[in-house]
Structure formats: C-alpha cells, structure tokens
Amino acid sequence: GAAVIGTDMRAAPQYAALANGTSAHSLELDDLHNESSAHPEVVIFPAALAASELSDCGGKRFIEAVIAGYEVMTRLGKALNPANHYARGFHPTGTCGVFGAAAAASIILELDQEQTINALGIAGSQAAGSMEFLTDGSWSKRLHAGWAAHNGVIAALLAARGFKGPATIIEGRFGFLHSYSDGSDPDKVLADLGKPFEITKTSIKLHACCRYKQGPIDGILSIIRKHNLKPEEVKQVTLGILKAGFPIVAEPKELKYNPKTLVDAQFSMPFGAAVA
C-alpha cells in the first residue's frame, strides 16, 4: 500500500492519493497558478507520491513527473479560459487536475508514449468538479483535488495494462476543450512550452480562503498597518474583485454577507474583509 500522510495508515495507491489530495486541499492553504486558476500541488504531488510507491522511482524521475504534471494541468487550464470554465460551473483544479495526475503517474510508472496517450484519454472521461458547492457551503470541493489525483492514478494503471482511451481527448470534436468551455484556445496548450516551466509561476496562499480573496485581504492588511487603524475607526470597506472571481466570492450578496458554514466563509469576500 501507499502512505496516507500524517497517519500510520497505508492504502491502495489510488485511495492514498484520494486521501492525501483531499486533506491537502481542505484548508485552502494550497498553491495557486494564476493563469489557469488552478491548484496543482494538491493534485500532482498526491498522485506522484502514490504512483512512486508502485515503482522503483528515483528522485530525478519523480521531479520530472511532477513538473510534467504541472505543465499538463496548468496549460489545459489556460487553454480553457478559466472565466468561461467557471461560467459553465466547473472547478479547474478537479477538471484539469486529472490530466496532470495521469501524466505524472504515467512518467513514474514508465509508461510508453502510446500508453501515456491512453492514460490521458481515460483521464478525460473522469474530469469533474462542480462549483455548486458554493450554493450551500458543502464539502464536495475538498474532494475535487483528491478525486483528480485518484482518477489520474487509476487512468495510468489502466493504460499500463492495455486499456485504451481516445487519442483526441483534448482537441477532439467531443474533447475536453470543446466540452468544458465556450471560449477555449487550443494553441495555449503548447505555446512557449518550457519557457519557463509553469511550476515556476505558482505561489502559496497566505490566507486560508479562495484565491480571489488573497489580493484584497493583503491590501486591507497593508492599509491597516500603514495607518495603524483600529476596527472601530472603519465605517466602510470598498473592494475591487477580479471579474472571474466576482460570482465566486461576492454573489449572491445575501449569502456572502451571512456565511453559514466554514466553506461559505472561505468563499465570502465580505467575511474575509471583516476578519482582516
């Protein structure tokens, strides 16, 4: 079995990836890649770690696999046009993540070119992650990273045993880019490949909440420090939110001003501003 991080338990690799990805994403203190609006770390590392326990993978191959997983996941996110992808109700970390997880696992398990293509094809039929959790602050978002890691490992294992997946899963008539976005740009998938690698464009959140709240919270904290403000001195806070993030952290107004659950609070800009 593979390690479930933070415990003494071991599980089948795909279930270890599920547990590790879910726990890594649960506090919203993950990494972020701005252009794809995705959190690669919480998908790619759980999948790579789980797959590595099935092979004699060394450090060099592990690093190559992680970098490749980041490339696949984030480039697909960029190509989808995240705002359009969100408008369809999808979460890029879940939908794009499964492809990155499959790519990373395929490298670690030393799949050949045909097998890797099959793994990505299989992964495409498991690309999921609904933003409907925003409606009632449910926990399903935590699973998006875990399921993407789990399904990526499964895709690679199936492909290693000869299971076939569609070679045109990305760009095909019914493929990922056409099915999951109204404004995708397939050219972005390979544009400027490795110049630089996408993993170098990621950062780690400082606040345990949605990425669209990070900048405004930093701005508020900066103003507080600069002017030594006290809470009782603040009458009103006016913020600007990125267009793609507005429906996520500012709508509907009644819910965002009255969060009922932890998830509600993590995705409420008014709450984040008040706490800051």
From TrEMBL:
Coiled coil: none annotated. GO terms for molecular function: lyase activity. Residues 207-276 form the MmgE/PrpD C-terminal domain. InterPro entries: MmgE/PrpD_sf, MmgE/PrpD_sf_1, MmgE_PrpD, MmgE_PrpD_C, MmgE_PrpD_N. Pfam families: MmgE_PrpD_C, MmgE_PrpD_N. This is MmgE/PrpD family protein. Belongs to the PrpD family. Residues 1-187 form the MmgE/PrpD N-terminal domain. Transmembrane segments: none annotated.
